Amino acid sequence: MSAPLVIIPVLSAARSTPRLMAPIRGRSSLQRTLDSASVDLPDSPIVVTTDDAGIRAVVEGFGGNVVAHARTAESYVAALAEVTRGYSAEIVVVLEPTHPFRPQGLVRRTADNLAARDHLDSVVCVRRFTANLWRHTPDGEILALSEGGDARDGVYFQEMVGLALAARPGLFESGRRLGDAVGFEVVDQTWALVDVRDDTGFAVAEALADRLPQLEEASA
Length: 220
Description:
Blueprint: E1 5-10, H1 17-20, E2 23-24, E3 27-28, H2 29-40, E4 46-50, H3 53-60, E5 66-70, H4 76-84, E6 92-94, H5 106-115, E7 122-131, E8 134-136, E9 142-144, E10 154-159, E11 165-167, H6 169-173, E12 182-186, H7 199-209, H8 212-219
Parallel strand pairs: 1-4, 1-6, 4-5, 7-12
Antiparallel strand pairs: 2-3, 6-11, 7-10, 7-11, 8-9
């Protein structure tokens, strides 16, 4: 099997885009995302598809297997499909650069997870948590998602697609992102969930950056 293709989509109109190049203790969220991809999948082409000139300049100076692609589609899935047409990879790994901290090996594990399961359309990163969750129905009724009794904590999985998504390229051509048969790559490190889409998330990333080596060691 050929090496997976890595795609990092960036849209200039997104509110998070200016934060992608802001340094977080020396390295921006975009640079950290590129580093994660390069370390985990050193033989893979890494394509940043963007319509932002500043992002493109950073990417072109990164070197290695990293290249910039001129994004013309505003739609997320259509932009991914644009890139895949130029490559013959059987697996595409999508990373969103708003996540600056990824456990080492996560990108490769997500790709390997899909490669090992021919019946899956995609594998998405998730966080596992327990909670007493409720839902509000359209007719105003409030219902518990967990069964009743003393032990009401249910186990749930929240999609964290930005950390890593591995998918068959045909999905994007059909206008889909995950498909029908989806596998999970569970991320247990809470520090990996940091997202710099807003100022609060960026401040959290700055606060954690200095402690990242200790956090990685503690979770190893």
